[in-house]
Amino acid sequence: MDELLLRELTPAVIGVLVRRGVDFATAEDAVQEALVQAASSWPDGQPADPKGWLVTVAWRKFLDARRSEASRRDREERLAVEPPPGPTESADDTLQLFFLCAHPSLTPASAVALTLRAVGGLTTRQIAQAYLVPEATMAQRISRAKRTVGDVRFGEPGDPATVRRVLYLIFNEGYTGDVDLAAEAIRLTRQLASITDDEETAGLLALMLLHHARRPARIRSDGDLVALAEQDRSRWDTSLIAEGVAILQKALGRDNLGEFQAQAAIAALHADAPRAEETDWVQIVGWYDELLRLTGSPVVALNRAVAVGEADGPAAGLAALATVDPGLPRHTAASAYLHEKSGDLATAARLYADAARTAPNLAELHHLTRQAARISQVLRG
Amino acid sequence: MAKYLLLKHYRGAPEAVNDVPMGEWTPEEIDDHVQYMNDFADRLRSTGEYVDSQALSPEGTFVRYDGEGRPPVTDGPFAETKDLIAGWMVIDVDTYERALALAGELSAAPGAGGEPIHEWLELRPFLGAAPTVSE
């Protein structure tokens, strides 16, 4: 059975039911049930028309649900066995679903869960496993999200920027369970890029591809992370890099810069360096300047200071860092790095140890602790 | 999303405002306290923020490796140990502010006289997965 095909068909099938007049929440439930049935019956022989099969089964699930609801209420209700004529299928059903699932009224966590289920076609169990929460918790999160968007009209104009933020969250939170969330985010972003044709969505897709290309070199056999400068670059996926760069160049050529394009440009410059020492830090600083202008984000200012340290030397980097809020996460780690480069090993060792205490994840905690240990060893002679 | 541990101490936390030992409460006060805790967990289940909660026995044993081919050494319990964990709840929330608000709510569980205990709970973030985008 082709699980990916099933998942790719999910938004279109939901779209068919919604255009027949079924509300989104009910349609989504019916399609999810049809997916479960397909998962058990398709292995014995996939239907010739998979989408038609899913529509028929999802429609039947919907009627069953209506009937049992009607009988619960002990009320006679004439049910249309034949679907009412609806408008003909529209190509932007998937886009409408993207907008609905990323609706601004949803919290980020709800938008992520709803997008993965209604557009991604993942089961609640798979999403729960990916985010390491009980299945019942994820089920509640999803049904609450569906209630939140219950009054939103399907077809209401949406903003692709909200969808991009949700897809970026899915990508950036990585992968923990048996579902590869990074790959799923790329698949969904491809889908969005193919229907929206805007520069920033292309920029986001390029950014994801360029980072995904490094994945084989980024994770050690023990699960810890390898810093960018220490990665074995021969293990980077060159075809993903080539695709990411091509998509980015086309987007940049349309001269409508946004933050994802600028971030992708930085990733592309790293990808372009055969060895870490050959990185074009001057150009990278230029892109951080653009990114800072576009976002005003203090996190960008912090990353920019590190890049300045590479381009113009550690003293310039520390001067740039001095203008950044010291309370930011990773400020101490950046300061430790720049102090080491400037030759002030004692300060660097102390700052690395401080940074390790506030590391936001285990991989960074291990990395920073190793840095502190390495410098302390040098200092001991 | 980020996961947080709400840690409840038998000992080791600063003194609560309504600091009457549970053994001196009335049975009704204990019922009300348990009900409050259960309702709190149910509410988090319904908002999709609940991950886990467990209570621990006050008494345990210290165990350590004692060399190849030898059984582990056990010791304790140590009555004088300063810090003693009573139990925990794990939540998965959108923001740190939400985690603070929930911890505050849990600390308001009723104790003696039906008044909030104002118990100190320790809020500890989980070390999550590293983000994919690193620069």
Summary keywords:
heterodimer; A: 381 residues; mainly alpha; Arc Repressor Mutant, subunit A; 19 helices; elongated; B: 135 residues; alpha+beta; four-stranded antiparallel sheet; two-stranded antiparallel ribbon; 2 helices; 27% strand
Describe this structure in words.
The complex is a heterodimer of chains A (381) and B (135). By secondary structure, chain A is mostly helical. Chain A has five domains: 3-72; 91-173, Winged helix-like DNA-binding domain superfamily/Winged helix DNA-binding domain (Arc Repressor Mutant, subunit A), CATH 1.10.10; 198-273, no CATH class; 280-328, no CATH class; 335-381, no CATH class. Chain A is built from 19 helices and no strands. Chain A has helices at 3-19, 24-41, 50-72, 93-101, 108-119, 124-130, 135-148, 160-172, 181-196, 199-212, 215-218, 238-252, 259-272, 281-295, 298-312, 314-321, 331-342, 345-357, 362-380. In chain A, helix 5 crosses helix 7 (135-148). The longest helix of chain A has 23 residues, at 50-72. Chain A is elongated and about 80 Å long. The N and C termini of chain A lie far apart (61 Å). Chain B has two helices and six strands, in the order E-H-E-E-E-E-H-E. In chain B, strand 3 and strand 4 (73-75) form a beta hairpin. The mean pLDDT of chain B is 91. Chain B has one domain (2-125): Dimeric alpha+beta barrel (Alpha-Beta Plaits, 2-Layer Sandwich). With 135 residues, chain B is α+β, with helices and mostly antiparallel strands. The relative contact order of chain B is 0.33. In chain B, strands 2-5-1-6 form a four-stranded antiparallel sheet. In chain B, strands 3-4 form a two-stranded antiparallel sheet. Chains A and B meet through helix 5, helix 7, helix 10, helix 13 and helix 19 of A and helix 1 and strand 2 of B.
